[in-house]
Specification:
The protein has 355 residues and is an alpha+beta fold. The protein is 24% helix and 36% strand. Strands 2-11-14-13-12-15 form a 6-stranded antiparallel β-barrel. It has a 4-stranded antiparallel beta sheet with strand order 3-10-8-5, with no helix packed on it. Strands 7-6-4-9 form a 4-stranded antiparallel beta sheet, with no helix packed on it. A hairpin with an 8-residue loop joins strand 12 and strand 13. The protein is elongated and about 160 Å long. The relative contact order is 0.18.
């Protein structure tokens, strides 16, 4: 008998638990369906028009805006110049550092010149002797004491001595390594005390900077050499600047099917090679619908507006939004040109909505 009672009690508890669970599920479904929220009574057919007369309303119009495609690239030097030594010698002075702007003819590096200056002085002394000998020979030839052959030999010696002086001066001048053009020094490749050899680079510099952008082949027909485009470098924190297409490389990259386009122009301050840049390619214009930001009311995460119907009542209209500005937002779907919407959605009460 005791076992029967225990089995009956267990079944009763199980049934009670099932009943409670089913009741909870029913209450949850009623709550999700809005059974516990206050309902808005529908408007009667003869109800007065809504909204109130002082509610601000605007008419949706279309605005033409330019269509732009951005492509990315990197800042690079248009011409990179390697400045090299023409002599074997020891560096005695370096007058440039990385990032410094230099002008054509400016001294960048000096080499030891003592030995070469001594050679120049010797050549100049031999030239003076050759000039004196030539002058004496000319007088003796006039006095008939020397032949014309001696005069020719003296002139030849004088010309050779003058050539040795010119050569010594040229070699001495090469101890001062100059900037071959205006530009910015990328790096110096020698220090005081180093020994450089002929052909060894002592510095690198560039003359101008350019943006090398990768453009898909589908956009290539919209670009031509000489076109003006907008260029922006995010690292500088400034707006876009005007550039000009200087070159379109006539060969596509096999994997990406894209071309390299080189853009030059006035470079903003702080621009250096290797920076990330953007080029904006104009693609025409399109029409956009704008509404005030205050006209948007969200239901959860869904944006809506209140559209004014011909009878003066309001209809909650679901919309899709695009790019937002300071005071307006683009509506990509849900409205048409000529629709009238409430500009201050916060002032609309539930009683003013059409069911």
């Amino acid at each position: 008998m005791k076992q029967v009672i225990q089995r009956f009690s267990g079944a009763l508890r199980l049934g009670l638990m099932v009943f409670v669970a089913l009741g909870a599920m029913v209450l949850l479904m009623v709550w999700l369906a809005g059974g516990f929220t206050r309902k808005i009574a529908p408007r009667e057919p003869g109800a007065p028009p809504l909204p109130p007369a002082d509610l601000p309303v605007t008419t949706v119009t279309a605005t033409r805006v330019p269509v732009v495609r951005e492509v990315t690239g990197s800042i690079a030097a248009q011409h990179e110049i390697h400045v090299a030594s023409q002599l074997l010698g020891r560096v005695t002075a370096v007058h440039a550092s990385a990032g410094q702007r230099v002008t054509q003819g400016q001294v960048l590096v000096e080499l030891e010149e003592a030995e070469l200056r001594s050679r120049l002085q010797q050549a100049e002394a031999l030239l003076r002797q050759a000039v004196d000998r030539l002058e004496r020979t000319e007088k003796q030839v006039q006095g008939k004491t020397l032949s014309e052959a001696e005069l020719v030999r003296a002139r030849t010696e004088e010309e050779a001595a003058r050539a040795r002086v010119d050569e010594a001066q040229t070699v001495l001048a090469k101890t001062r390594i100059l900037a071959p053009a205006d530009g910015v020094l990328i790096e110096r490749l020698c220090e005081v005390g180093d020994t450089v050899t002929p052909g060894q680079a002592v510095a690198r510099l560039y003359d101008r900077l350019q943006l090398i952008a990768t453009v898909p082949e589908s956009l290539l027909t919209r670009l031509s050499v000489g076109d003006e485009v907008a260029v922006q470098v995010d690292a500088l924190g400034k707006g876009a600047c005007a550039g000009q297409i200087d070159e379109i490389v006539p060969q596509a990259q096999a994997l990406s099917r894209a071309f390299q386009v080189k853009v030059t122009g006035p470079c903003p301050a702080g621009l250096i090679p290797g920076m990330f840049g953007r080029m904006r390619i104009p693609l025409g214009a399109r029409e956009e619908l704008h509404v005030p930001t205050t006209a948007i009311r969200r239901v959860g995460q869904v944006p809506t507006v209140f559209r004014v119907l011909p009878d003066g009542s309001l209809l909650r209209q679901f919309v899709q939004l695009g790019e937002a500005g300071a005071d307006t937002v683009v509506v990509t779907s849900g409205l048409e040109v000529g629709d009238r919407v409430v500009t201050d959605a916060a002032r609309v009460t539930p009683a003013g909505e059409r069911p």
